[in-house]
Amino acid sequence: FGWALERDFAIVVEMDADGSHPASALPALIAAVRPGTGFGLAIGSRWVAGGSVVNWPLRRTILSRGGNAYARIMLGLSARDATAGFRAFSATVLRAIGLDSVESHGYCFQIDMTRRVRDCGFRETEIPIEFREREHGESKMHSSIVREAMTKVTVWGFARIFSRRRRPIVNEA
């Protein structure tokens, strides 16, 4: 991301090179974050109407859906697929986020970036994609990746909950 920003790219795309993300969806992702659209992040989503997953084991589907539901609840996100790694960001959003402060890895990075987009006052949209099990390479999914995501989402969620302004208690006596 930093490399692209240093070279003044207006839109930065993130995607896996293992055959799981359909390149045919790139035009829609890019168009979604062009100036004037009102969106700073477009997510290639498996979990919105029209999106799907092909050749994935049931346990991965359950883990992904469960992790996304947990992130939505804890962080108040609207994105159905906050863990997706197929995304287009406007450079304006990436500059506002403060990339130097991002310390997340794995799927937690995707959740972190989604919440940062929202916290900086930008909106995201989800473009349905057909996600396919990788054709090349090895899975990065390990228990440490899941632990990091669960821990950080929990910490961020409680920080969000406890930082909300509370109504003052009024004594009606």
What does this 3D model show about the protein?
- The protein is globular and about 40 Å long.
- Helix 5 packs parallel to helix 6 (about 145-165).
- It is built from six helices and six strands; from the N terminus they run αβαββαβααββα.
- With about 170 residues, the protein is α/β, with parallel strands linked by helices.
- The model has no long low-confidence stretch (mean pLDDT about 90).
- It has a four-stranded mixed β-sheet.
Quick description:
This protein has helices at 2-6, 26-32, 58-75, 91-97, 106-119, 143-163, and strands at residues 11-14, 41-45, 52-54, 87-90, 124-128, 130-132. The chain is α/β, with parallel strands linked by helices.
List its traits.
173 residues; alpha/beta; 4-stranded mixed β-sheet; two-stranded parallel ribbon; 6 helices; 6 strands; globular
